[in-house]
Every structure is written in structure tokens, then in C-alpha cells.
Write a structure and sequence with these properties.
Blueprint (H helix, E strand, L loop, with lengths): L12 E5 L1 E3 L8 H6 L10 E5 L7 E2 L6 H7 L1 H5 L1 H7 L4 E8 L6 E2 L3 H13 L19 E5 L3 E7 L2 H10 L7 H18 L2 H20 L8 H12 L8 H7 E6 L4 E4 L5 E13 L5 E2 L9 H5 L15 E3 L4 E4 L7 E7 L4 E5 L4 E7 L1 E5 L3 E5 L3 E4 L4 E6 L3 E7 L3
Antiparallel strand pairs: 1-4, 1-20, 2-3, 3-5, 5-11, 6-12, 7-10, 7-11, 8-9, 8-11, 13-14, 14-15, 15-22, 16-21, 17-20, 17-22, 18-19, 18-21
Helix pairs in contact: 6-7, 8-9, 9-10
Length: about 400
């Protein structure tokens, strides 16, 4: 028996402790309160549950890393089909508290990530280099479910709405001919590749004019102008305007209500603006940024990955299964599946896992019965290995989110 698990009981279900991330855009109340921790002035942006090599969760019983535990017998723990397809846990499960805007982002497809990663490996660029684009060879699709009112940018607006924006502001009129001639690609490339002086000349007077409406409370969070002014004050200096502000005008502004979901596929430009959510994604760090950030941006590489077309945001609420207790949020990818389990006090939910499944108790208190009993309350997590038959008993009204692999 390996050094990692020789002291573990022979079980198929374990409590799991995640890793906190203190990114500056995070709030400082939601996640500590959820986890029963002390609230301080320091940001707590994300809580990670998974086997990411840079921030693996740990087993509560002995503080061993989940990634190391999996590696003791990956075929059994992950499940034969998941192991054959991915050779590792293919997803990363998160809780996010977005207080301030995140960067405009695009994620590559699997073939694009493989090509980009191989290219940068051949060039000898260190994987932890700040200017590296591809940290690994994987894609990074992701799904989120809102835990509060949540605002984000997601894909390009319709042609009609783009034209309304361009005609609605005199400072943007000169871009109408570009859009009519060269479409989404021509428009976005034009603004992202223009020099900083041109961006300053175009956007600064527009944003300064909008500030008076913002300060007078005339702009709402459901208007792009609101977020444009916030970005102006957060990411810009008197002599330089962040080009990401163009994206605020050109991308769909989506307002999700609690319980609603949206899926972000490869090539779709997007950005989280404000709110709390549960997020599940492929296990990758590949991000190409388009603004609202001080981090590295490779604009030519970004533009080679963007889907230049209208996006109609698909906001959905999932499919109810398993005696009306489980809601599954279906996506087109094999890497992950997100679901939520809702139980009233004394209700039971029984199922058999086909892959390693991670559960997070968002509300309530539960008892898990497999080959042992685990008692969990709000803010705690557990995982089951593949092939585990288990039952959840709600000790009070409870809401649990579950991450799994649908293979």
C-alpha cells in the first residue's frame, strides 16, 4: 500500500477541504461566512475544490492532497472510463465572489490549446512565465450557476444592437463603416489593434460624459454604460484607456438571477462583472485576455482564437431528475457535469457514482451514508470515488452542488 493511503481506512467517501484564492477582485464576506471562517478586510475571491496541481484540495482525515490520493489508484478512484479518457480528474469546482470586474477573457479550444502549448514548449518559454499564453494543453470550457444576482459579459451582441451602439455615440460613428464592411472581426480587430492614442481620443470624452449620469444615479447595472464608467475609474489613467472598455459596449450584458446558469465555450469573449456563483470548468489555466487587467495580453494570439459572430446568450435552469431532487445543468463537453441536489428535512437521495464526484453543501446539514457515515454542514464538502453507492439524508432543508464526469 502506498505511503499516501496506508493510514486511510478502506472507504469510498471522504470529507474534502478546498483552497482559498485571494485575488484582488474578490469580496471579503461571502466565502468566509459560507465556510464559517472569520471575516477580515482581505479579499477571498475563490474557493477551489479539486485536484489542480497548483492548489489541490486535501482530505480532511489526514491533510493528504486529493491529487496524490487519486494517483495511488487512478483507474479505481476516477473510474475506468474517466481514467482512459483523461488520466486525471478532468474538472475544477469553484465558489466565486466577484466584487470587482474580472478581465475580458477568451479560452482556446482543445486543438488550439494543444498547438499553442507545443509551440511555447518548443520555444523554451517557462510554464510559469508571466508572458506565457498556454500553461497546459487543455481547453477551458466552464459553466456557472448564479448564487445571487449576477452580471457578466458573454459573446457579441446582434448586428442590430452593435449598430445602435455605434450610431448612439458620436465618438463611435467612425467605426460604423468598418463594421458594415468587415463585420465583427473587422470591428474588433480595429479597436484592439489601434494605438493607445487613438483609444484615448475615442473613449475618454465618451466616458467623461457618462460619468455625470453615473454620479447622478441615472445608470443601472443592466446598462453597459454603468460598467464602462466603473472600468474607466478602475483600470484607466489620465493618459491611457483600457481597450477592454470597447468589449463592454460590444458584448452582451447578461443579468442572471439566483439558480440560473450559463455555459462559456471556447472562443466566446466573456467577463464576470459582479455577484456570487458556483463554477465548474475543465482543469486548465489557459486564458487569453482582452482588457480590464494589468496581466499579460497577447492581442494577436487572442484575436486568432475569438469567435467573431453573434452570440445569443443561453440562460437556463437545468433539467430536473431523480424524483425531483436533482437538477442537472447539461453542457456539450465530456469533462464535467454540474448538478444541484435539493432536499427537505428527512428526505433521502440515493445514487451510485460513475466517476469521482465532489459535493459542496451550500445550505443546510446532511448525513452521508456509504461504507461509513459522514456528517456535514453548510460550507463543507465531500467526495466519493467511482462506483460508490451512497445515500444523503437531509438533517435540515439542504442544498448541495455536485461535480462529476458524465462519461
Amino acid at each position: 500500500m502506498s505511503e499516501i493511503n496506508k493510514n486511510l481506512p478502506n472507504k469510498s467517501v471522504y470529507k474534502l477541504v478546498g483552497k482559498l484564492q485571494d485575488y484582488k477582485w474578490g469580496g471579503n464576506v461571502f466565502i468566509p461566512s459560507l465556510l464559517g471562517q472569520k471575516v477580515t478586510d482581505e479579499p477571498v475571491a475563490e474557493y477551489w475544490l479539486g485536484a489542480h496541481p497548483n492548489a489541490s484540495s486535501t482530505l480532511k482525515v489526514n491533510e493528504n492532497k486529493l491529487v496524490d490520493f487519486i494517483n495511488t489508484d487512478p483507474k479505481t478512484i476516477l473510474g475506468a472510463r474517466v481514467y482512459k479518457r483523461f488520466h486525471r480528474l478532468p474538472y475544477l469546482f469553484k465558489v466565486l465572489d466577484v466584487k470587482n470586474m474580472l478581465s475580458i477573457q477568451v479560452h482556446p479550444s482543445k486543438p488550439q490549446a494543444e498547438e499553442g502549448f507545443a509551440r511555447e514548449e518548443a520555444l523554451g518559454i517557462p510554464r510559469d512565465a508571466a508572458h506565457r499564453n498556454y500553461k497546459d494543453d487543455n481547453h477551458k470550457p466552464e459553466i456557472m450557476v448564479a448564487l445571487s444576482d449576477f452580471w457578466l459579459l458573454h459573446g457579441f451582441k446582434s448586428s442590430e444592437k452593435i449598430k445602435e451602439i455605434l450610431l448612439g455615440y458620436p465618438e463611435l460613428h467612425h467605426l460604423m463603416s468598418v463594421f458594415e464592411k468587415d463585420g465583427y472581426e473587422g470591428l474588433y480587430c480595429a479597436v484592439m489593434l489601434e494605438d493607445d492614442e487613438a483609444t484615448l481620443k475615442t473613449l475618454k470624452p465618451l466616458l467623461e460624459e457618462l460619468e455625470s449620469d453615473f454620479d447622478a444615479g441615472k445608470l443601472s447595472k443592466n446598462q453597459p454604460e454603468y460598467w464602462a464608467v466603473k472600468a474607466f475609474r478602475s483600470f484607466c489613467s489620465p493618459d491611457k484607456i483600457d481597450k477592454g472598455i470597447y468589449s463592454i459596449f460590444f458584448l452582451n450584458l447578461v443579468h442572471l438571477k439566483k439558480g440560473q446558469a450559463i455555459f462559456q465555450d471556447a472562443g466566446v469573449p466573456h467577463a464576470y462583472l459582479q455577484g456570487q456563483n458556483i463554477e465548474l470548468m475543465a482543469n486548465s489555466d489557459n486564458v487569453l485576455r482582452a482588457g480590464l487587467t494589468s496581466k499579460h495580453m497577447d492581442i494577436p494570439e487572442l484575436l486568432s482564437q475569438v469567435k467573431f459572430c453573434e452570440t445569443i446568450p443561453n440562460v437556463f435552469e437545468g433539467d430536473i431528475l431523480n424524483d425531483n431532487h436533482e437538477t442537472v445543468y447539461q453542457t456539450p463537453v465530456e469533462d464535467f457535469q454540474l448538478s444541484k441536489i435539493e432536499l427537505e428535512k428527512n428526505e433521502r437521495f440515493a445514487v451510485k457514482s460513475s466517476s469521482l464526484e465532489i459535493h459542496f453543501v451550500l445550505e443546510g446539514a446532511i448525513q452521508v451514508n456509504a461504507d461509513d457515515y459522514l456528517n456535514l454542514s453548510k460550507g463543507e464538502a465531500f467526495f466519493t470515488i467511482a462506483g460508490c453507492s451512497y445515500e444523503i439524508l437531509a438533517q435540515e432543508n439542504s442544498l448541495i452542488f455536485k461535480a462529476s464526469c458524465p462519461l
